[in-house]
Amino acid sequence: MTAARPVLDAPGTDGAAASSPRLIPYVPVLLFAPCFIIYAVLFIWPQLSLLATSFVDGNQWSVAHYQRFLGDGYYWELLGRTLFLGVITTVITLVLGLPVAYLLARMQSRWAGFLLVITTFPLLVSAVVRSFGWMVLFFRDGLVSKLVVALGLASPPFQLMYTMSGVVIALAQVLLPLMVLTLYGVFRSIDRDLELAAMSLGARPSLALWLVTLRLARGGILAGSLLVFSLAISTFATPSLVGGARAHVMSTAIYEQTIELLNWPFAAALSSILLVFVLVLALVYGRVLEGRGQTEARP
Amino acid sequence: MSSPWNIDQLDRRAFMAALAAVGAGSLLPASAEAQGADFKGRQLLSSGFGGSTMDIIQKAAFDPFDAATGAKSTQVPMQSAAALARMKAEAGNPQIDMYQFSGGQEAQAKSEGLTEPMKSVPNLANVPGGLKDPDGHWVTWAVIAEGIVYNKDKIPTPPTSYKDFFKPEYKGHIAFPAITNGFGMDFLVMLARTFGGGEDNIEPGFAALAKLKNETIFKAASDLPGLFGQGDIWIIPYDTGNAFKTAQSGLPVAFATPQEGSPAVPITSCIAKGAKNADVANGAINYLLKPEAQIAIAQGMRWSASNVNTKLPAELASEIPAVSQLAQLDRAKINANRAAWTERWNREIAR
Asked: What is the topology classification, in CATH, of domain B145-264+327-348?
């Protein structure tokens, strides 16, 4: 606290701290410090020790756990299923969430606030409770499973319980409010006049929506997708409760190795591999979305 | 009880000294721990099985213990496997003094040096040799009998054998627990025994289970009401306790003992090595072994008693198999093969 005082005065001497390259920008550093310290202690350090654990076999350093993963089709299948779960959940929440968020953001009615609360209401109930709710509906005599059979989508001894489809449905419901909230914020910040301007220049409403609003909402779409995707592939409660043993994904495999089999190094390796894949995917996705925007904005 | 001074009369310094002495409880002479029974102001933290099970055990053993000694015992809900992981993570500096296990974890905890021997637990003498560690690191205070849980309405004649799981008329109405659930592991072993193998030859078990691979697989006991309720499931390899609990919720469910034997699942307790309240834990374990507590647990949970002096009321005894009638599985061999069998199960059965 006191250390900052002389520095705060210092820039006044020549206008800006930046003009003197030797001077460390104390103010930004100090402002950044609390966040950084928390991040370092609670994320970076554990992550590094996790990484270190994944390279231990017995009492020595080893890449055995990575070899085991990479050389085994079963684990690739597991990773593939996990990433597929993330992608399909993201697509479903995006398709369902976009219109809802758009309507809520543009709604003039005094019910708008109430509807927003209703949309986000599921967030107030824990994912475990919601998953239990789905379980009741997904068992063979449950409402949803019976409906699927009645609609002729599946033949009689059918249940959504303990299937990947069940996990996707439950997870999409669990994560939809997050997508809607993220998109809602972005749509609210886009000036309606821009759409009107596009239309006054001859664009049909659908084209205006596509050319102006959705394009401006790109950042929100990216943020919402990443949020849903990363939660979908890392979530444990829903796949574990609704999917059971058959819908094994990375998170349930990590749990099994950590808790049931006490093979912590292999669990650490699984976590690290998942983290790397997520980071790469997030970077590529961000690039694609932003890159497209730039090239199209230029001409 | 026979505390030499009243806390109200102490000045602060003496109080702190007393606290320090209490903190060094494990250094006190052993005899003072057992009958002294004054744990006023002391806290005991134990792992527990959660839900109504935990409440029944609290009422049966911990509450009377607290009332008699002035201790305050709290159970932290944790499944056995998670509890062992927690015990391992806290090795050297245990926050939880005492653990309850239902999946054979106590043997592993002992072999990894995570436990310490019990001291002055008088009731330990009343537990038969096979139900406690020879070095006194753990003791069985209840035994679960596994067998067949079935829907009485759909299956009017009680099943008699593990072979009943292969009856064509039950096809599509069978569920079994995943191998990560202790009962799932024992089902695999019992199938192996049924078809000519056993702990040493698991092949017949996997071969039999492969025939059931398209049936419903579940992970946790909490799925049972759903499976019997909305799941249209008629027959599941599970235990007396959960059969009783599910029946209590109003479902037409009963328990049957298979002719191949009801495997015994020991419910054990042990003390974390270096636990700050090891003396209190010893006292609580003694209460878990008391006949009164074991009768209350039998009443609430349908778990068998381990103390030879526990005499269950006749109507209860008819519902709960005595420990001597149960099949003992080789837990050491099962533990040694757990990782390999789990890996294989994941690939061959759940895939």
From this structure: D-Maltodextrin-Binding Protein; domain 2 (3.40.190)
Q: Are A163 and A137 in contact (CB under 8 A)?
A: no
What's the DSSP call for residue B171? T
Element (DSSP H or E) covering residue B236: strand B235-239
DSSP single-letter state for residue B198: B
* Tokens read off for A48: 């590094």
Flag whether pLDDT at B296 surpasses 90: yes
A237 contact B CB<8A: no
Same topology for domains B7-143+265-324 and B145-264+327-348, yes or no?
Answer: yes
Tokens of A9: 């005065």
Q: Please give the C-alpha separations between residue B157 and each of A157, B75, B127, B226, B320, in angstroms, as whole numbers.
A: 24, 40, 36, 23, 19
Stretch 85-144 of chain A: residues touching chain B, C-beta under 8 Å: 135-136, 139-142
Contact B166, B208 (CB under 8 A): yes
> Nearest chain A Cα to B176, which residue?
A245
Query: Model confidence over A70-111: pLDDT tens digits?
Result: 999 999 999 999 999 999 999 999 999 999 999 999 888 888
pLDDT band at B281 (very low <50, low <70, confident <90, very high): very high
Q: Which class is domain A72-297? A: mainly alpha
Nearest residue of chain A to residue B103 (CA atoms)? A260
Exposure of A62 in the CB half-sphere (CA atoms within 13 A): 11
pLDDT tens by residue, A38-68: 999 998 999 999 999 999 988 889 999 999 9
A258-262 long-range contacts, CB within 8 A, separation 24+:
A258/B85, A259/B81, A259/B82, A259/B85, A260/B81, A260/B180, A260/B338, A260/B342, A261/B338, A261/B339, A261/B342, A262/B84, A262/B85, A262/B88
Distance CA B200, CA B215 (A): 26
Closest approach of B84 to chain A, Cα-based (Å): 8
- Kindly report the nearest CA distance between residue B261 and chain A, in angstroms: 26
For residues B298 and B290, give the distance between their C-alpha atoms in angstroms, rounded to a whole number.
12
Which residue out of B111, B187, B213, B216 would a mutagenesis test of the A interface target, given it has the greatest number of A Cβ atoms within 10 Å?
B216
Mean pLDDT on B221-242? 92
Which residue did the predictor score with more confidence, B76 or B3? B76
Domain boundaries, chain B: 7-143+265-324, 145-264+327-348
In angstroms, the CA A114 to CA B272 distance is 53
Which phi and psi angles does B266 have, rounded to 5°? -75, 135
Kindly report, as residue ranges, where domains of CATH 1.10.3720.10 are found in chain A: 72-297
> How high is the ipTM of this complex?
0.77
> What sign results for the dihedral spanned by CA atoms A248, A249, A251, A254?
positive
Q: What type of residue is B329?
A: L
Q: What CATH class is the domain B7-143+265-324?
A: alpha beta
Q: Decide if A270 contacts A250 (C-beta within 8 A).
A: yes
